[in-house]
Design a protein that fits this description.
The complex is a heterodimer of chains A (62) and B (228). Chain A is mainly α and 62 residues long. Chain A has helices spanning 13-35, 40-61, and strands at residues 6-7, 10-11. Classes of the chains: A mainly alpha (62), B alpha+beta (228).
């Protein structure tokens, strides 16, 4: 049985990819936040957009 | 097997996220390697360490670094310390070039010129030195523990490098001894967790630096002129 969450006895690759991507986005966002002087809200909005676009791409094209 | 590998990867990432959250707002250990020194060890974190006396070993290693420096080819006085020039006041014929060291500056001081060390004068809590001069104008720097290294130079006359630290740190190392000759740019000593270096030089010497400028010990030219 193959679903979004499970596939052939392991986590679905899309789901697994989104989880990995989310944590890496969080850590990368932290580095960007420390290295730039951009306003926090703008950074948050940009990071949220990047995360959403990546997550959608992983789900749609895996 | 695939599930096991996925679980291991997710467990590692979850651990990283948890440590990141626990450490926040300070950077997590694996993030530090990507950050420049000032961001790697934020000032607030260093001040916390000063309070509890438990410093991060990597920060201490960074703080105690002692890199080689390349002397400028031009003759003249070189900066005795890394840091920011905060004032260059003249009193009674002597100019006091005050260099403020931050937590991230290299803390080994260097001789500004070739000369003979004629005195090494540690002093305690007062703002008056042994010659009756008042350093109260340095009061805002909170600098009661000092060691003054006096140099006789052929090129610029009598100079002094004053190593200043706080009551909390109270540790200044001076490596050469009285009577020894030091070369231009040679290591003079180290302030351990200290804050300020003052170069005293004759007022008539024309300076190449001004307040607000950053300096590198042994590399930045402070004053032009013949030197050996």
């Amino acid at each position: 049985m193959t679903t979004f969450f499970l596939s052939q006895g392991h986590l679905g690759w899309s789901f697994f990819g989104v989880l990995m991507y989310s944590v890496l986005c969080l850590l990368a966002g932290d580095i960007v936040w420390r290295m730039t002087t951009a306003p926090f809200r703008r950074l948050l909005a940009v990071m949220a957009l990047i995360w959403a676009a990546g997550a959608v791409a992983l789900i749609a094209f895996w | 097997m695939v599930l096991l590998i996925q679980a291991l990867i997710l467990a590692s990432l979850t651990t990283m996220a948890i440590v990141w959250a626990v450490r926040f707002p300070y950077p997590a250990p694996w993030l530090r390697v990507f950050l420049p020194a000032r961001k790697r060890w934020p000032e607030r974190e260093i001040r916390d360490w000063l309070q509890n006396g438990r410093f991060h070993p990597a920060f201490l290693k960074f703080f105690n670094r002692d890199p080689e420096r390349v002397l400028p080819p031009e003759p003249g006085l070189v900066a005795p310390a890394d840091g920011l020039v905060t004032s260059a006041e003249a009193r009674d014929g002597i100019r006091y070039l005050v260099i403020a060291l931050s937590f991230w500056d290299m803390h080994v001081q260097r001789s500004p010129a070739t000369g003979k060390i004629v005195a090494i004068e540690p002093s305690g809590d007062g703002f008056m030195d042994g010659e009756g001069r008042n350093f109260a104008f340095l009061r805002e720097k909170h600098c009661p523990v000092q060691t003054r290294v006096v140099l006789d130079t052929a090129s610029h006359g009598r100079l002094a490098v004053r190593l200043i630290t706080s009551v909390a740190a109270r540790r200044i190392e001076v490596w050469p001894h009285e009577g020894e000759t030091v070369e231009r740019g040679q290591r003079l000593g180290r302030i351990l967790l200290g804050s300020t270096v003052v170069l005293e030089l004759p007022e008539h010497i024309t300076m190449c630096v001004e307040p607000g400028q950053r300096m590198r010990a042994g590399e930045t030219l402070v004053a032009a002129g013949a030197t050996t």
